[in-house]
Amino acid sequence: MAMNHKDVKLSCRHLWKVYAEDRAPYFKDEVRTGDAPTLAARLSEDGAIPAAVDVGFDVHVGEIFVIMGLSGSGKSTVVRCLSRLVEPTYGEVLLDGEDLLKKNKKELIDIRRHKMGMVFQSFGLMPHLNVYDNIAFPLSLQGVSRAKREERVGHVISLVGLEGRESAFPNELSGGQQQRVGIARSLAIEPDVWFLDEPFSALDPLIRRQMQDEFLRIQLMLKKSIVFITHDFLEALRIADRMMIMRDGRVVQVGTPAELIINPADDYVSDFTDEVPMVRVLKAEDVLDPDATPTNGMPEQDCKTDVEALLPLLASNKDGIKIMRGDTPLGVVTANSVIRALAHQDKRRGAETPHPEAAAQ
Amino acid sequence: MTRPTRIQMVWALLLALTIAALFIQGATDWIVAFPDQWVVPITPWLNSGMAWFIDQFGAAFRAFSAAVGVPMKAVRDLLNWLPWSVTLTLVTLLAYAVSGLRLAIFSFFAILYMVVIGYWQESMNSLALVAISVPVAVTLGFVLGALGYLSRTAERILQPMMDMLQTIPAFAYLLPILLLFGFGPVVGLIASILYAFPPTVRNTMLGLSRVPEEVVEAGLMAGATSFQIFWRVRVPIAMRQILLGVNQTTMAAFSMIIVASIIGGTADIGWEVLSTMRKAQFGESLLAGLVIALMAMVMDRITWAAANPKRTPQDAEYWRRVKIWGLAIAFTLGVALLSQAIPALAEYPRAWEYYPAKHLNDVIDYIIVEFSASIATIKNTAFFFVMLPVKIGLTQTISPFTWGFEFTDGLRMAYGAGAAVLTLAIWAWRGMNGGLLTAFVATLLYFGLTGLPWPMLVAMATLLGWQLGGPRLALGTFLGLAFLLFAGVWPQAMLSVYLCGLAVLLSFTLGAGLGILAAENDAVSATLRPFNDTMQTMPLFVILIPFVMIFKIGEFTALLAIMAYAIVPAIRYTEHGLRNISKETIEAATAIGCTRGQLLWRVKLPLALPVMMLGLNQTIIFGIAMLVIAALVGTSDLGQRVYIGLGNGDFGVGIVAGFGMAIIAMIADRMTQSWSLARQRALGLIAK
Question: Any CB–CB contact under 8 A between A56 and chain B?
């Protein structure tokens, strides 16, 4: 991982959200001492609904942190707890080291106005405002001057490529365009932390792919600290620096996409990873050959290149490919190291693939 | 035949008991007529309570009345002072600005009609009433609606209050207002505010609560304060729904114009309609009624267009508006100046008026004389063969004077046997429910609704409530009917049920038929639409006029008037329900090989049934609303009691009868709604 990711921007510790908490009056006492899974099971039994169970993670500066889970896994609840759209029942949410849950209403509004942006699954646009006014809405709530407003809005409109549609109303736009407005609106206040709640789930597959690319392009320029929610595992792999898998309100595993694929924490996670074409997920830096040393004749590739893109190069360069992080050489990828990585992966996949010994006979 | 369920057994038992009771006890016993000595003297209690209240607080109410009178008179004077040409220009341009050329032309001729016919001053006096009552009602409605949205307690108090205000006929609360606020136009104003504000409350609550949660979250994430969320997110998004409420409020205010003039009658259009109708000057009253109808239609279309703007790209829209308003001001000023120079534009010359009442009366007279035979035949046939059997039963209807023969014992036996055979046949063919229904109808036709024993009717209604809506509805039904019994208005209530029930049955059957035609045939739909629109904006009183003209007073006229008004929702909902069935279902049915008839009967109608039931619900509510108005043409039901109470200044009588009508309306409303909801759930049209 890149070095500058180490500073923590946002983190949450022991975060719980329990609905119908009055069914379990003992919750407040036991949450400090008790074992989280046991407590959650007891809550469900008594008719309370634990939507987030002892959730904890860090989001580093400039990182895309993806929370992936199926519907009902608590991922939307967690992202809403981070901005206090949903009031957490217990725990801490630290933004730049300060506990958000201790802020009063006025301070919270101030934080939302200056530090947070959010994009919604169904866009959340104001139907009575046109594109320009929708994007300017957060600024106008703060009473930002007209000139400044125009400058900021103009900037984000060109960032998302909506020039010329300023006077259109949401119902005149396609889904993809509406979400561009949503993205522009959330960026207009220049937030530090950017929440995206299944931003592309309501879009057609082709548009979704295109929006993912644009999102990555924008992030390359802006370097926000991002929490991105999705139920689509491939989408998570595509965009995540690190990701967290949730199930029934609990954290199942946190790690980089490669870590998850190479070492899934349990069957639930490997159910997702099984279907993933490995060569597309593994990056050059994940398959370095420890025995090879870089020489001058080798072609150079960035450490983030997909293994799939390396294959044709490997076919014509027997010695290997020199992998670079920026200007410094990181190591060498050889045909051997790629095969080894893929084989290792296959072994983990178990019963469905032929046994190595059987294959050897 | 399958084994009967427990509820079917109870139904059969109740029917058997009814028939047994009627034969054993005879028709005069306490089991048919609720004993007088059991009646609780609610009416005198109410009257003395009211007297005490007026004694204590009357002065305050009168002071308020005087205070409200000032702005009312100011608006009245202003509207009367404005030259007619200026008002005409303003309304026309307003119509053009919110909608377009077509509405502008319609508005122009509508207003011009008021001028030419010579009712200008009366029209402006009525408009003054509406012009004050609508803003007050809208403001009141918005504040209460917002309150109801923000607080659950407020909502719980408001909901039943709105139900009451909209189902108790306005006549019933005219008198208390009169007693409290004294005579004069202010009474009409207050009555019309009370009647008109509930739609705004309802639509405000609905609109505010329907704002998508995600949009509110987006507002919160943008850092909106609670105040900003309400005024800059919720209210603007709810605005369309709120404006729909404003439209309904305006219409309600218009429909109160004539009603209000019964007590606050001054030189306005309502009074003109009412007084001419009382003098049987139908031509005159039709002409005056048309003024109100036109005014209501213009206002309806203008407020509706304002609520549903056609959205064009904003810059163009902005310039178009600037241009129109600039033009409007310039043009109006020009007309105003011109009217200073040309007196005819300020005050329309008497000599130019055209008042065709006499010709109209001549035409009406000619029709009545020319077709007297057929009119009498229609009236008598309907009366003797449909209305009387339902009301008092065949046993009292059939005589040589009506049906031309005696209802002999032999015939009675034959009727009984025939009914039994038919019941069994239908039971075998369509199941026990059908058999029970047949038996009930046969019994009803034999004894008449007023001849059926009250304990059985109460039990049956309660059982029906249980079946449709569970224990709560059953309890509500039981208590409501008990009130009718103990208040001593059971006979009148049954007459209301008979008249309204018959009208609803007929208009629903007819309306559903028309609705099916309209759904299957675009030409029929296009033909019916203007009729529906007109009937729905037509003030209730005006609908009465043509029927009274031809059929004179009497229950048959009342029946027709109720039908004319109540048929509209039946047509609309049927067409709507049929046209909104999912395309896939119809494609699937067509692919399977349904003929057009099979598609209609076996696919479309069952799926559209819940929506049609909502139409039935509306038909009932509309019918009951018209029932009170129809009392003016001579009925003897609760509506008439309301009217009598008002005429005699007897507060208790009027309010008890009004309350009784509200009870009937609410029971019918809850039953049809629960039924429709249950069906929609069963069909998976709405979430469980």
Answer: no
